[in-house]
TrEMBL record:
Organism: Schizosaccharomyces cryophilus (strain OY26 / ATCC MYA-4695 / CBS 11777 / NBRC 106824 / NRRL Y48691) (Fission yeast)
Cellular component per GO, a single term: cytoplasm
Domain of life, source organism: Eukaryota
Gene3D superfamilies: P-loop containing nucleotide triphosphate hydrolases
Family to which this protein belongs: Belongs to the gluconokinase GntK/GntV family.
Keyword ATP-binding: yes
Reactions it catalyzes: D-gluconate + ATP = 6-phospho-D-gluconate + ADP + H(+)
Native organism taxonomy: Eukaryota, Fungi, Dikarya, Ascomycota, Taphrinomycotina
Keywords: ATP-binding, Kinase, Nucleotide-binding, Transferase
UniProt-recorded name of the protein: Gluconokinase
Biased composition (Basic and acidic residues): 151-160
EC number: 2.7.1.12
Single GO biological process annotation from the record: pentose-phosphate shunt, oxidative branch
Length: 192
C-alpha cells in the first residue's frame, strides 16, 4: 500500500524522558491512550546485558547506551511507516543531549515531528518512588547516578519541554496531556 504523504505530515512522536522513577511509563501510557497514539516502552529494547548491569547496581555508560538508543529510534521509525499509526509515545530515559541527538537523527528523514517531554522531579521524590516499587530491576540507589547523567534540555533544544512532575500522579497526567496538546496545536501536526 502506498503512503499518503498528507496523512504522514501529521504524525508526531513524543519521547517521554527522565531518570528512573520520574514517571515515564505512567505518563507515556496515559498520553498514548488519550491521543490514540502507539505506545513503545524503551526499556523493553535494552539488551539483556544492560538490564542485568542495572539490576546488579551498576549504572550504564555511553557505550552501553549507544546501540540501545539506535534501537529506540529505529523502533519509532518502523512504526511510523504504518499508515494506521498517527503518532507514537515512547519512553526513553534519553538522559543526555547526545542521546537525544541520536533519536533526532534516527527520525530526521521520517514523516513525523519529534518532541521530548522531560519529567522533572527532585532526587528525594525519585528515591521515594523507586523505593516504593517492588520487583523492578532498577533500585533506588541508582537514582544518584541517573541524576549525574541527566542533562536537562536547555533552551537551544527547541523540541524539548520540561514538566514538573513533583505532584500527585493524576495532576501530572493532566499536565502532561495539556502540554502535549499545546505542542501539537503549535506544530499543527494533530487536529481532533
Ligand atoms: N506524578 C507522579 N506522582 C507520584 N507518583 C508517581 C507519579 N508518576 C509515577 N508515579 C509512581 O512512581 C513509580 C515510578 O513510575 P514509573 O514506573 O512510571 O516511572 P519510570 O520513569 O518509568 O521509571 P523507570 O524508568 O525506573 O521504570 C510508580 O510507582 C508510579 O506509580
Ligand atoms: O539510560 C538508562 O540508564 C536507563 O534507560 C534507565 O533510565 C532505566 O532503564 C529506567 O529508568 C528504568 O528504571
Amino acid at each position: 500500500m502506498s503512503l499518503n504523504p498528507h496523512m504522514l505530515e501529521k504524525k508526531a512522536i513524543f519521547f517521554i524522558i527522565g531518570p528512573s522513577g520520574s514517571g515515564k511509563t505512567t505518563m507515556a501510557k496515559f498520553l498514548a491512550d488519550k491521543l490514540s497514539f502507539e505506545y513503545i516502552e524503551g526499556d523493553d529494547l535494552h539488551p539483556k546485558a544492560n538490564i542485568e548491569k542495572m539490576g546488579s547496581g551498576q549504572p550504564l555508560n555511553d557505550e552501553d547506551r549507544w546501540g540501545w538508543l539506535y534501537n529506540c529510534g529505529g523502533a519509532c521509525a518502523m512504526q511510523l511507516d504504518d499508515p494506521n499509526v498517527k503518532g507514537i509515545v515512547m519512553t526513553c530515559s534519553a538522559l543526555k543531549c547526545a542521546y537525544r541527538n541520536i533519536l533526532r537523527d534516527s527520525l530526521k528523514h521520517r514523516p513525523g515531528s519529534v518532541h521530548f517531554i522531560y519529567l522533572m522531579a527532585p532526587k528525594e521524590v525519585l528515591i521515594e518512588r523507586t523505593s516504593a516499587r517492588k520487583n523492578h530491576y532498577m533500585k533506588a540507589d541508582m537514582v544518584e547516578s541517573q541524576l549525574r547523567d541527566m542533562q536537562a534540555p536547555k533552551d537551544d533544544e527547541k523540541d524539548a519541554y520540561t514538566l514538573n512532575v513533583n505532584k500527585p500522579p493524576e495532576e501530572s497526567k493532566d499536565d502532561c496531556f495539556a502540554l502535549a496538546k499545546d505542542i501539537l496545536k503549535k506544530e499543527e501536526t494533530y487536529k481532533n
